[in-house]
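Researcher: Structure for this, please.
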Amino acid sequence: METTTNALVINQEGADSIKLDYVAVKSCAMTLRAVNHKLRQQIVKLLEENKRMNVTDIYVKLRLEQSVASQHLAILRRANIVRTEREGKFIHYSLNVPRIGNVAKFVTDLINSEA
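Model: Predicted structure, token format:
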């Protein structure tokens, strides 16, 4: 077993070594925590269906207070799950599909490595 600053490498007898990248784990954990909330899951689903929406569209559709929708969008933005695009005074939100795909692959690889 070797430890580097940002990774742990485990050598298995008769198998390939396993490298656990702490930065990637932390990043994916933050993303998973962000989507582990029913309201944020509804926002993600809404953005998937509509591709691009502003906060007004989101809070009206989900029947939320504007501040609640904004707080949850901020969490999704910090986790890099949604992208923003300013258009005049409006900020439009869309899903960061490559990021979601990378996290899904990381989780799948982690689960499959146990087998």
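Researcher: Any notable elements?
Model: Strands lie at 2-3, 7-10, 18-21, 53-54, 82-87, 90-95. Residues 46 and 70 are 15 Å apart (CA to CA).
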